[in-house]
Design goal:
mainly alpha; homodimer; Neurolysin, domain 3; three-stranded mixed sheet
Chain lengths: ~500, ~500
C-alpha cells in the first residue's frame, strides 16, 4: 500500500499542478501567456497519464488489491485507483490524441458557427463528435445501452435506465407546474439589474460564504469569466464568481460554488492527496452546490436574516421590501438558455438534452435533424420555440467536446439536494428557524458528518443508501417545488 | 536537436509548473494549502531532476553536441543544457537531499535565533551550513579558490579573483564618498512616510511600469510579502510589490522588478521554453533592475515628468517641491540593514558579506568569531556598530540556506548598470532630455537590441564584451555616484 501511495502522490502532484495552471489561466494569466501555457499543460497531462498507467503503478495496485481489505479507507483508494486506471487504459493513446485534436478544432468551429447562427457549418463537426462519443463508448464497454459507458464516467453506476427512471418521475409534474405558473402574473425583478459597485458585491458575496461556513483559511474567492470551483488540496479550495449588472449572478453563483467548495473542504485532512478525498460524483457534487444556492440561498428564512445586510451594503434596496426581493429571486420563466434558467425549468432543459443525446448515440436521430428535434422539445416541455439555432441546439459547449452522458448529473443534483435535505431536517429540526437567525453551523455539521467526511470512500449508490436509506427519489424535490411555488404564485 | 528539444520542453513544463506553484503560494495561497503545496513541489522537483538527468536527455544532448554548430542559437541551447546537466549530476542525490533537509531545518533555527537575538543558538547550524557549502564546492570542483565553484552557479565565469578585482575598484572611493556625505546635513524625507491609499499606490505603480515599457499584455503586477519577479514564459512575466507606509517601497520596488521583467520580456518569442531565453546571469539581471530603479527611477529628469502626476494621485505631495522630493528619494545614510540601504551604501553591505563568506569558506574566520568580525567591518566601512546580532550578522536569510557566492552579483548589478548606461548614452544621446518628456522607448529599444534580445545566447563575459567592448569597469558607476551626490549634497 505504501508503494501504491507513493505512486498516487506523484499522480496527485502532477494533476494538482495542472489544476493550478488552469485556475491561474482563468483567473490571472495575461493574454501573452496562452501559447506556452497550452504547451505546459500538454506536457504535464502526458506525464500524468504516464504516471497513472506506468508498470510501477500497475504492479503496486495489483499487490494492494491482493493485500488490502476493500472495506477500509485504503481499500477505497485501491478501488478508485483501479477505476481510474481502467478508464485510462481502455482508451488507446491514438484515440485520446485524436479526440483531443478533434475537440480543439470542434471548439473553434462551434464558436464561429454559433456566432454566425449557422448550424450547417457546425453539422459535419457535430457528426464527427457523435462518432467519437460512440467510439469512446465502445472502447469503454457497456452491457445494456451505449449511453451507460459514457455516463458512468461522471456518475459511477448510473445508466440510461437509471436516468430514464429519474426523468420519468419529474417529466410530467414539472411540465404541469411550469404551465400552471405561466398562467399567473410574474413577479417584478427589474430592480435586480443595476450598476452595482463591484467592491460591494464582492464584500457581500464574501460575507455570505463565510456565514454559511466556507473556511477562508482553506480557500479563496476570485473573479473569472465562468464561475467554477477547483481545489488543489483539502486545505486549498478556490471559488470564482463574476460581478455583473444582474445581481443574482454573483450572489447565487457564489453560494453555488461555495456549496461545491464546502463539500471538498469536508474531506478528512488525512485523506489529502489520495483519491478517496473529495466529492464522490458529479450528481452528488451538484446536490451540494444546489443545496446552498437554492434550498438555503433562495429561502425566505435566509433572506429574513441577510436582507437587512444587503440593504445596508447596496442601499438601492432600501425601497424594496424583503418579500418582493424574495419573490424576484424565485421568478419562474420558461426561457431559451439553460445557464440562465430558474430552479424549476432548469431540469426541463436537461431532460431535453438527455433525450436528444440518447437518440443521437442510438442513431435514431440524425445530426441534420437536431435543430428541428430541439425546437420541437422546447415547444413541448417549455412552451417556447427557439427563434434560431444559436440560442437553440448550439448554445452549449458540451457536445462540441464530445461530452455526452454528463447533462443528467445536473438534474440529479437538483433532485438529490431535496432528498438529502429532507433527511437532514429529520435530525436538525426546523431549518427555517435556524436560517432566520443566521445559524448555518448545525446544517453544515450534519452534512459533514453524514456526507462530506466520507469523501469518495463509498460508491455513490452506497452513500445514498447510507444517507437516505434507499435509492434516488424525486418526491422530496417535487414536494419542495410545489410548496415553494404554490406560495409564491398563489396556485 | 529535435530529440533534445522535446526533452527540454518537458523539463521546462515541469520547471514552469513549479514556478507557477511558487508564485501562487506567495501571492494567493490560503494558509491551509501550505502542507500539500510543499509535497506537490517536492514531487515535481524530483520529476524535474529526473527529466534533466535521464538517459534520454543525456543521449540526445551528446548527439546534439556532435552535430550542432556551437555558434548558433541551437548551439547555445546545447551549451546551456550541458552546463545545467553537469551541475545536476556533479552533486550526489544524497547530498542534495541532505542539503534540502538541513536548509529547511536551518531556516527554522535561524528565524527563532534571530527573533531571540541569540547567535549562540544559531552557531552550530551556521557551522553546518558553511560545511555544506564547502562540500558542495568540492563536488562542483574548482581550480583556484573554493569560492569559484560556488559563485559560478550564479554568475557564469566569475571567480573570487574576479570579485576581488571588482571590489578593489570601489572599496576606497565608496567609503570616502559615504564619509564625505556624512559630514553634510541629510535631506528631509519624513514626508515619504504616510498612510497612503493602497489603490492609489497601485494605480501609480502601474502607471510607471507601463510608461517605461513593461508590456501588460505579457505580464501583471500582484502583491506579495517579498517583492520578486518570476516568469512562466516570455509572454507571461509576473511582478510583485508591496504597499507600505514608506512610499518608495512600492515605487522603486515596482521599477526594480519591472526592470527584471522587461529583460525577460525582451527575449525573442521563438526562443520560448528553451534554455536560451531569459536573463543571462544574476549580475546582468540585477543590472537591469537597478537601471530602471536607480538610473532611470531616481533621476531628476524622471521626476520632472512624473512628479506632477504623483502630486495628482497622492495630493499630500502638493505642498512638497519636486526638488525636495528628488533629494529625499536619494538620501544616503549608513544603516544596519542591507535591504533598506540606499543606492550608494548598498555595495558596502555586499562587500562586507563577500569578505566574510570568503574567510569562512577558507577557514580563516571561525563561525564563532563571525559576530565580532561583522561588527568590525560595519565600523570600518560604514562607520556604525550594530547594537545586536539580530540586525547584524543574522539579518540575511542567505547563509542559513548555505547560499554563498551569491551576494557579489548584487554589486555587479549596480556597477554594470552604469557601465551599460554609458554605452547606451553614446547611441541614444541625451537620456535626460528623453526622460523629462516621458520618452522611454528609445532607451528600452536600445537595451532590447543590444542586450535583452540576446537572452542567454552568449556567455556573460562575451555579452559584456559585445555590449561595452571590454570587461567589467566600475568607473562609470563611480563617476555616476560622484556626480549625483556632489550635486545633491553640495560636495
Amino acid at each position: 500500500m505504501d508503494a501504491l501511495k507513493a505512486r498516487l502522490f506523484e499522480a496527485n502532484a502532477i494533476g494538482m499542478a495542472i489544476a493550478v495552471l488552469d485556475w491561474d489561466q482563468q483567473c490571472n494569466m495575461p493574454h501573452g501567456g496562452g501559447a506556452a501555457r497550452a504547451e505546459h499543460v500538454g506536457v504535464l497531462s502526458k506525464l500524468a497519464h504516464e504516471s497513472v498507467v506506468s508498470d510501477e503503478t500497475q504492479r503496486a495496485l495489483e499487490a494492494a488489491e491482493r493485500e488490502v481489505d476493500p472495506n477500509t479507507v485504503d481499500g477505497a483508494c485501491v478501488r478508485l485507483t483501479r477505476r481510474g486506471l481502467d478508464m485510462e487504459t481502455k482508451l488507446p493513446g491514438d484515440f485520446v490524441a485524436e479526440k483531443a485534436r478533434a475537440s480543439a478544432q470542434a471548439h473553434e468551429t462551434w464558436v464561429k458557427a454559433r456566432t454566425a447562427d449557422d448550424f450547417e457549418a457546425f453539422r459535419p463537426t457535430m457528426e464527427k463528435m457523435v462518432e467519437i462519443a460512440r467510439q469512446e463508448a465502445e472502447y469503454l464497454g457497456y452491457k445494456d445501452h451505449i449511453y451507460d459507458a459514457l455516463t458512468d464516467k461522471y456518475e459511477e453506476g448510473a445508466t440510461k435506465k437509471f436516468w430514464d427512471g429519474m426523468f420519468d418521475q419529474i417529466r410530467q409534474p414539472l411540465t404541469d407546474l411550469v404551465a400552471e405558473i405561466g398562467k399567473k402574473p410574474a413577479p417584478n425583478d427589474a430592480f435586480l439589474t443595476g450598476n452595482w459597485d463591484e467592491a460591494k458585491q464582492r464584500e457581500f458575496s464574501l460575507k455570505l460564504m463565510e456565514a454559511i461556513g466556507f473556511d477562508m483559511e482553506r480557500g479563496r474567492l476570485d473573479v473569472a469569466a465562468h464561475p467554477f470551483c477547483t481545489n488543489f488540496s483539502v486545505g486549498d479550495v478556490r471559488l470564482t464568481t463574476r460581478f455583473q449588472e444582474f445581481l443574482p449572478t454573483s450572489i447565487f453563483g457564489t453560494l453555488h460554488e461555495a456549496g461545491h467548495g464546502m463539500y471538498e473542504q469536508g474531506s478528512p485532512m488525512e485523506w489529502d492527496r489520495l483519491p478517496v478525498a473529495g466529492g464522490v460524483s458529479l450528481g452528488f457534487h451538484e446536490s451540494q452546490s444546489r443545496t446552498w444556492e437554492n434550498i438555503v440561498g433562495r429561502s425566505k428564512a435566509f433572506w429574513k436574516f441577510f436582507y437587512p445586510q444587503l440593504q445596508q451594503t447596496l442601499t438601492q434596496f432600501q425601497s424594496i421590501s424583503m418579500d418582493d426581493f424574495y419573490r424576484s429571486v424565485n421568478k419562474v420563466e420558461p426561457s431559451l438558455i439553460r445557464v440562465e434558467a430558474d430552479e424549476l425549468t432548469y431540469n426541463l432543459h436537461i431532460l431535453i438534452r438527455f433525450e436528444l443525446e440518447c437518440e443521437m448515440l442510438e442513431g435514431t436521430l440524425a445530426v441534420k435533424d437536431l435543430p428541428a428535434a430541439w425546437n420541437e422539445k422546447y415547444e413541448k416541455y417549455l412552451g417556447i420555440t427557439p427563434p434560431n439555432d444559436k440560442d437553440g441546439c448550439m448554445q452549449d459547449v458540451h457536445w462540441s467536446a464530445a461530452l455526452m452522458g454528463y447533462f443528467p448529473t445536473y438534474s440529479m443534483g437538483n433532485i438529490l439536494s431535496y432528498q438529502i435535505w429532507s433527511e437532514l431536517e429529520k435530525s436538525v429540526g426546523d431549518t427555517n428557524a435556524l436560517m432566520e437567525k443566521g445559524e448555518f453551523k448545525p446544517i453544515l455539521d450534519w452534512l459533514i458528518d453524514n456526507m462530506y467526511q466520507h469523501g469518495q470512500r463509498f460508491q455513490p449508490q452506497v452513500l445514498l443508501q447510507k444517507l437516505c436509506g434507499g435509492g434516488l427519489d424525486a418526491q422530496p424535490y417535487l414536494n419542495g417545488m410545489t410548496k415553494k411555488y404554490s406560495e409564491i404564485y398563489g396556485l
